[in-house]
Design a protein that fits this description.
- The protein is α/β, with parallel strands linked by helices and 332 residues long.
- The protein has 3 domains: 54 residues, 434 Repressor (Amino-terminal Domain); 86 residues, Rossmann fold, CATH 3.40.50.2300; 154 residues, 3-Layer(aba) Sandwich (Rossmann fold).
- The strands form 3 sheets. A 4-stranded parallel sheet has the order 2-1-3-4, sandwiched between helices. A 4-stranded parallel sheet has the order 6-5-7-8.
- Helix 6 packs across helix 14.
- The protein contains 14 helices and 10 strands.
Length: 332
């Protein structure tokens, strides 16, 4: 796409964008005003032409005429953890591909007043909708109720929660398939919707496989919390009829747990198998490399953004089991 003449002639207009994209000026206007009846490839071509030409939409003027700022609010909590930080990156990419911007506000996830204040801050900026990342069970309904004038969605609610359940079930089915009949688990914080969905997936898979549920513990998603649970897990493992595997609700807690077990002389997977959840970029480099499950986070982000703006999206891929060295058959 050649653009020097357009750039050198002053402010780029709709006509230059249409010429560069090979479409009509009406099509460009439809992209700018977010018309729903456009093919994704046409929208992408126009957006690419805008970027290449340096075309800038006057958001203030458009907001007056269309009551939209093309900005989606993102309400996040702890971005230091892999799950939330990956979710933020996926949502920003999905919004960008849809010709939108993301405005982010952070809040203490367990503090309802903090979450509502952050949502109000986003609403005051004129966002077209609010996506809640890693929502707590008690705060999401409050946001929906207090901001009923804009769409509110959660990244892992609805179909996203179903994917969480299926992914957790994959890990348990894998362990059961290896011959484990007593499986313990480490859950995420009980007031997180993601933790609840993953627990439901574990429970359902254990029931389907006829597995005896072992003891359960709760961490805070961090590696430190997984390591802190190691003494209790060791006590359970060495007890008569103790668990031979532990399904952990995220990779970071699994990493901490494995480190704590090894410090206490418990071999993974020789004595106990451990699985994680998320397949974070470091999971393959743990020792032992971590067996885990992976979600189509990018696809889920595209789904949420598309549903919020009324656009089409590609189907979200099913979760995938990633088998590595931290799981094996139980000891004889």
């Amino acid at each position: 796409m050649s653009t020097p003449s357009a750039r050198g002639s002053g402010r780029v207009g709709v006509r230059q964008v249409a010429q560069a994209a090979g479409v009509s000026t009406q099509t460009v206007s439809r992209v700018i005003n977010d018309h729903p009846n456009l093919r994704p490839e046409t929208r992408r071509r126009v957006l690419d032409a805008m970027a290449a030409l340096g075309y800038r939409v006057n958001n203030a003027a458009r907001a007056l005429g269309t009551r939209t700022t093309r900005t989606i609010g993102l309400l996040a909590s702890d971005a230091t953890l892999f799950g939330p930080s990956a979710g933020i990156a996926a949502l920003e990419a999905a919004a960008r591909d849809a010709g939108r911007w993301i405005a982010t506000a952070y809040a203490a996830a367990a503090d309802e007043a903090s979450v509502v204040a952050a949502a109000s801050h986003l609403r005051d900026q004129g966002v077209d909708g609010i996506v809640v990342l890693a929502p707590h069970a008690g705060t999401l309904p409050t946001i929906v109720r207090t901001h009923a004038d804009v769409p509110v969605a959660a990244l892992h609610a609805g179909p996203g929660a179903d994917a969480q359940r299926r992914a957790a079930a994959l890990a348990v089915a894998h362990l059961a398939g290896l011959g484990h009949r007593r499986i313990a688990r480490v859950s995420g914080p009980s007031d997180w919707l993601e933790a609840a969905a993953r627990d439901e997936g574990v429970d359902g898979a254990m029931a389907s496989a006829g597995v005896t549920p072992g003891p359960s513990w709760v961490g805070d998603w961090s590696a430190a919390s997984g390591a802190a649970l190691a003494p209790e897990v060791v006590d359970a493992i060495v007890a008569p009829n103790g668990p031979t595997a532990v399904a952990v609700a995220n990779d970071q807690m699994a990493l901490g747990l494995i480190a704590g077990l090894r410090e206490r002389g418990i071999d993974v997977p020789g004595v106990v198998s451990v699985t994680g959840f998320d397949d974070n970029p470091d999971a393959a480099y743990y020792r032992p490399a971590l067996t885990t499950v992976r979600l189509d986070l990018d696809g889920e982000a595209r789904r949420v953004v598309a549903e919020m703006i009324g656009a089409q999206y590609s189907p979200v891929k099913p979760p995938v089991l990633v088998v590595r060295a931290s799981s094996a058959s139980p000891p004889a």
